[in-house]
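Quality-control log, excerpt.
Job 1 of 2 completed; input and output follow.
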Amino acid sequence: MSVSEKLLSSSMKSSSSSSSSFLSFFPPETPRLRLSSSVLHSSVSYSWKQKRPSFQVYAVSYEKFIQFALNHTKHHTHLSPSPLQEKFSSMMSTDGNVELQMGSFEAPKIRLLRSLSIETETMQVLDFAAFPKPEYDVPIFCANFFSNASTSIVLLDLNPLHDVINQREYKEKYYSSLIPLGLLPWGGKLTSESLTFFSPIVIWTRFTPNQHKYDVLYSAFVDYYKAWVELIDEAAEENDASIIKFNCEAQHRYLAWRAEKVDPGHGLLKRLIGDTAAKELLRNFLFHGIDELGSKSFLDYFPDYRSEDGTVIEKRSIIGKSFENRPWDARGEFVGNIFIN
C-alpha cells in the first residue's frame, strides 16, 4: 500500500471533532471567532504573551493537519492517489538521519493536493497545498509551517489565482465572505513582489511555540481548509477555452515564482538532500505543473530578474522594499502604500 493510500485510509479513522474555531483555544473570557466561509464577520484582538508551560518541539506533529485535510476532502469529493506518488512517497536525507514523507492526490476539481512533512526531535515541517484544475479559478490553498524549539514560522493562505490588489471583482468573488478575520500578528517584512501572490486573509507570523499556540494554529488550518473546500464545492466549471487558458497561465506563473523564489523550504531541502534532488522535488512534486501547464520560463514572467548574462538574479527582491506591517486593513482593503527599505 502506497503512502497516499495509507494516509487516505487512516484519515477516515481520524476524528473531525477537532474542527473547533481558530480562537476556541483561548481563555473563556476571550471573544471567540469562527473562521469559516459563512461566518467571519467581526475581528478581535488578543495577545500571545500568556504564560504557558515550556514546549518541546517533538511534542508537535503536523500529521493531524494532513489527516484532517484528507478526511474532510474525502467527505466532499472522490479523492484518489496521484500518479506522482509512484516516484514521490518518501526520501531519506543524505546522512540517512531524516525521512521526508510525501503524499499526493487528485479529485474531479482538484489538479493536485500534496503534502511534504518532516518530523525529527528538533524540527517539524509541513508544506501542504491544493491546486484547482484550470477549469476553476478558485484560489490555491497554501500552508507552510516550520517549528523548532525556539521558533515557529507560519504561512497560511488561500493564495489568489488572479490579482486581488487591483482587481476588485476577483477579491469580492472569493474573499468578501472571509473578511475580516481574527488574524495572528504580522510576521515581519514581506517583499513587495511576493505580496501579489497573497490574499487579504493571509496569516504570516512567527512565535515562540507552545501547546496553546499549536492548538490555535491547528484550528486556523481547519477553518481555512474548510473555507477552501467550500469554494471548490461551489465552483462552476468554466467552458470558455480562453478563460481556461487564462487560469492555466495564472497558475503556471504562480508555480514558476514559488519554485524559483519564495518556497520557504528550499534552503532546508538543499541541506537535507542536496541541491539537485531539492530542485527536482520542488519542480516535479511540490510545484508540479511547471512543465505541464505552460512553456514560459521564470524570466518570461518576471523579466526584471534577468541578469546581464541572461541568468536569474538570485536575490528575492528587485524592488528592494518590503511590507513590515500588514498591508490590508480589517475590511480587506489594501493600505500598503508605504514601503520599508
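Job 2 of 2 completed; input and output follow.
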Amino acid sequence: MASQLETSSAIYVFRKVVRIKSWMPGPYPLLAHCRSKSDDLGEWTMAWNAEQDISFKTNLYGTTLFWCDFKWATDTQTKSQSVPVFNDQDPNNPCNGDKDEKYCNWIVKPDGFYRAAGNQTRFPDDYTFITPWK
C-alpha cells in the first residue's frame, strides 16, 4: 500500500496524484526528496516495489510544479537525478492541466525514469521512458 503526502495550496483547480514506485533492486533503498515552490514534502526511503503518493490540487494559474531529487547507492555505484514529476506548463505531460488523468504515475528503474497517466488506482501498463539517471 502506498503512503501518501498531502500538500496545501491557496487556490485550487484540479485534484492530482503523483504516484512513484521504486523498482530499484534491493537491498539498497531509493531515496527521494520531493517539493514544490510552496511545499517541501521532506525525504523518504523506498524499498523495492514500494509506492509513494503525492496528493495535491493544481493552482489557478497553471504553474504547479513538483520535482523530486532521487538518489540510489550501492557499495560500488551512486546514481542521482532531479525529475519534475508534475509540471503544469509542460505540453508533453499527459498528467497536466485540465486533462482527465488524475494520476501521474512514475516508475524508477535501474536505467531511468518512466511516466504514464491514468485515472485508475492501479499502475497502468503504458509507461514511456522519460530520462536516464545521471
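Post-run check on job 2. The mean pLDDT is 86.
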